[in-house]
Specification:
Number of strands: 0
Shape: globular
Distance between the termini: 16 Å
Structural class: mainly alpha
Largest sheet: none
Order of helices and strands: HHHHHHHHHHHHHHH
Helix content: over 70%
Amino acid sequence: MLSRVAERMYWTGRYMERAENTARMVNAVTEMILGAPREATALWDVMVEVLGLHASYVERYGEAEERHVVRFMLPDEHNPSSILRSVQNARENARTTREVIPTEAWELINETYWQVKEHAGRAVARNHRSEFLRDVVERCQLLNGLLSGTMSHDAAYHFARLGRNIERADMTTRVIDLGVAGQQATDIQQQAAGAVTTPLTNIRWMSVLLCMSAYEMYHQHVQTRVKAVEVVKYLVLDQDFPRSVMHCLNEVESCLLQFPRHEQPLETVQKVRGVVRRRDIARLMSHGMRRHIDTMQRWLARVHREVSANWFAFAPKP
């Protein structure tokens, strides 16, 4: 298989997954601030930070406020991680590999790009936002189903699946980081005000579960009320939930085994899985969880670099 085709399929999977997860995260923060309007500015700032976009946001907009952050994350063509840019990049990669993907998949990606381009600006306003974000998520999910159900499960398919799961694992850690950072900010405010308890923590973690479409599955499999430690354990360690970090790592391993010369990236995936499995999340939630999240993200970045070096070294940049 040509390295050019492999790389472009990989990035098609990553960019569409990035668009979906960005939509999920923006929707989650919107839901959180409805329950805690006084925390709105802090939560939007935290979201930009956990996505690694704080410097570029500040350069363009300055202080974090809802209207500017949502514009930055949805229609802003200068933000390489905005929904518009992610879908645009996915479309360009898919366009140059149309010979290996089903026509229906290409048409869906192309149609999604034009839909996002036309409506992302209107979604900056709250009254249009939820419908737009839900549409983006549904279109990305439809694409996953189309590829799974109509594309030969050959190397091209597995490179798209590989990209999707590396991106999904990384974005899951960022959604968790959003919850942890928001909780820490609330705890500091509580201590300063002399408060002991608040319902906001449970509301926030409920929003995290809803953001990941994990609310019902959490209750079925964890069988307890929404608690921060249990939610993080579920989203990191559960073997069966498709958006958990552990499940994504298992999927990445499954993809790598389809390719020749997979030994080095496979070894790295197995190492990061060991790191994830061994850490005591209950202890880390009281101190050090954000460092652990950063460690997971660095390992995932290493997997990406090794995949690129192994199979994309001779491909032009996507």
